[in-house]
Amino acid sequence: MRTKFLHFSDCHLGYLQYGSKLRFNDFSRAFLSIINTAIVEKVDFVVLAGDLFQKRAIDALTLNSAMRGLEKLAQAKIPCIAVEGNHELAYYNEALGWLRFLAERDLLILLHPTFEDGKPILTPYERRQGAYFDPVPGVRLYGLRYSGSSTHAAFAGMTAAIAEQPKDGIEYTICIAHTGVEGVLSGHKGGLSHSELAAMRPHVNYLALGHVHKPFTFDNWVYNAGSPETCSMEEVEWTDRGYYLVEVDTSRSREDGEPAHIATLRANPRRPFYRLSVKVDHAASPVDLYNHCHSVVKRRAADLGINAKDDPTRSPLVELRLSGVLPFDRSGLNIEQIKTLVEETFNPIHCQIRNATQSADFAIDADQQLDRRRLEAQIVEELLSRDVRFRTRSATWTNLALSLKQLALTGADADTILEELGATMREQDDGRQTTDDAVDQTDAVEGRA
User: Which of 85, 127, 269, 344 is the most exposed, fewest CB within 10 Å of its CB?
Assistant: First the structure.
């Protein structure tokens, strides 16, 4: 027996990511691209493992996108067999969710068992309801929708029920489930354990999963294709996600546990996301930091072949992450200036600057035996010396700060305060010029020597 099918999930139609209509359209474009692939590849059926929609309450445009794709499959006489995911389950007081609506329109075959005393009852798909469906002779598909906290019990019950089913004439079995698997994503708990999965393996040839946006496979029988579009910046590194194209031939040799199928993971076209990272620790000033960001951004754009004047329909989404310890006060960090740099270079539809920097530790070990004015001077000078912009003349800037404070406290007018500030600035400029002249003279003498 031979057959070919396509397996995908987590399309999240209707997601207005970052409030962008372009991103809304991108999710529809990815879905339709996969539908077109199924038709071009002439698959016998399509497996949709949940989360077709981003949310339970959808608008007309979102529903239209789903129906356009599913109607194409119907016209090509390719059945789409699906289960509900957590994003689209009907509200508890609603009898009809949107996937059920599509099933009522005969655009989906929506599988899920009924439960009696906690035990799943597996009935064939009839009158738009049932737990299993045979799309071609010799192939059977079972479906289990998202079950939340009951997932472990529901999956165990499904395993036991499938084991008890008669297998006359069935050469290849698929189970569709919307659930995670333990250990796939670090820090995420609650997925099925590998021992729970192993109990189903003797009875199922291909476990088609959805829910986790990262693609993964285990032991040539557990498959998760990931999300066709990028639902968050954390998904950027998973470049190979999209859908599985699966060719089944039950006459193939089964030596060494070789499966009866070949599943090929393919990445569908999608809008590019880029993540950049800049360490701030060695920037001596805000100007140095901006120059460093400029270098990183321009170099990355050149490596990627980015031209801000390229086709705007392929404009990317960009995140730049700043990390490390700032050697100057946070007020000197100009986030908007850096964002403008990224926007001018990449022409993105969305730019996000993540400020993960840390301020230097400004705890002061002050001498409590000093009088108030000298204690205040010590604290101010210590703070200024922590900032690389003021470190070399921290004493001068301390005197100026305290002088300006005193003028303000005694009611001096603005002109007087500005004159005091201007005088100090001129002295600083004169001092720097004198130092530069001395250095030039020293260089000239050494040159003659």
Answer: 127
